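Need the bound structure for flavin-adenine dinucleotide, inputs here:
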Amino acid sequence: MERISDVLIIGGGIMGCSLAYNLAKRGASVTVLEKTTCGSEGSGRNSSGVRAQCRDPKELKLAMQSEEMWLTLSEELDYDVEYRRIGNLQLAFDQERMEEYRQRVSREQAAGLPVRMLDMDEIRRRLPNVNLDDGIDGCQFLGGTLCDSDGTADPLRATKAFHYAAVRHGAVVLPHVTVTGMTVENHKVTRVHTTAGDFSGGIVVNAAGAWGWEIGKMAGVDVPITPYLCQVCITQKLPPDTLKHYLCIHPYAFWNQTAHGNLLYTNAHAPLEQFPRHDVGYDVVEYLCRVTQKLFSPIGLGKLSLIRTYSGWNEVTPDGCAMIGFAGDPENFFVDAGYSGHGFCLGPASGVACADLILEGKTDLAVSELAFARFDKTR
Ligand SMILES: Cc1cc2nc3c(=O)[nH]c(=O)nc-3n(C[C@H](O)[C@H](O)[C@H](O)COP(=O)(O)OP(=O)(O)OC[C@H]3O[C@@H](n4cnc5c(N)ncnc54)[C@H](O)[C@@H]3O)c2cc1C
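Answer from helper R.:
Posting the output first, comments after.
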């Protein structure tokens, strides 16, 4: 087993696997340590949105750069990630939010995102199977926004695609290896202790998602991540194009129809204290199904079965944006975590940017405002 590598990555989610692929492709020796299996956490459980609309201005450019990479990702990784540009439609149900959307749309258009305001007539034409007349919880829909370059892909397939491509380029990916501690000497992580013995790497990367705070603690670095739980529900298959767009109704939930026809919906996240276990929150499932049944009443969705439901941990930072870059101390500890519920979209670009920073110390991709340095107390 390879125990010394140029780069040792902790975590086999989309971030760890995308970075491993980009590093290995460029000739670095890479080992990924994964506590369970690649994609078993947020990266394989998410609601499949590849979306730049509604992103924090710090993150918007990187999301747009990543969306360009998604266009050719299946060919690049030689694995179908089921990427489809179906457009992302956001619905608003109060004047305050409509005004917020107008301001956001002009900011996003100025950045080059193909997004625009929609009136209810156009929304009705685009969502013929959705009941738009009764609103949600007594609030009426007033309008919305559509971003044509947003879409979806299959979460597990995409993460596995990076995993398999990384291995083809020589990366060593070790499942069922849990990192339990680190030795830090002379301002460097010299050993990473695991359930399978010790490993070391010239650079040690924290790509542990919602557990990034814990890995940070092992290195003596405060990595401010709060885990939040989200619930995903999947129905039986529906006829093609029952729902043409990725549909978001903030702050309630997200809906989209998968490439195979199932309707997949997810709630906005709930605090850890509310759902302390990593399992199904039935109260959330019940709420989501009630809202979904009402929204899709024109097609009698309530008669269909829910075939699967599971939860997944999000990883939220104090400003809701990712943390990318070296810690000040230990100097070989690199943070690639805290994607705050938007990481699936960012996976392709983030892998390239982090590989650039690790191998060359700079990148052309738009990560400067996402630097870990903004929170790093070791500096
Ligand atoms: C329900 C849900 C819906 C979402 N919807 C979207 C969406 O529509 N669009 C979008 O862009 N993003 C979405 N996200 C967010 C997105 O999934 C994450 O931001 C992204 O997957 C983070 O990737 P990651 O590799 O950093 O983390 P993870 O996928 O969590 O990977 C981290 C890995 O580290 C491993 N690990 C942890 N601790 C250790 C240890 N001690 N030793 C070894 N390994 C360890 C874990 O097992 C895990 O596999 C959603 C997330 C959830 C949960």
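Comments: Residues 10-16, 33-36, 40-43, 45-49, 178-179, 207-211, 230, 232, 266, 312-314, 337, 339, 341-345 surround flavin-adenine dinucleotide (CB under 6 Å). The chain has a mean pLDDT of 93.
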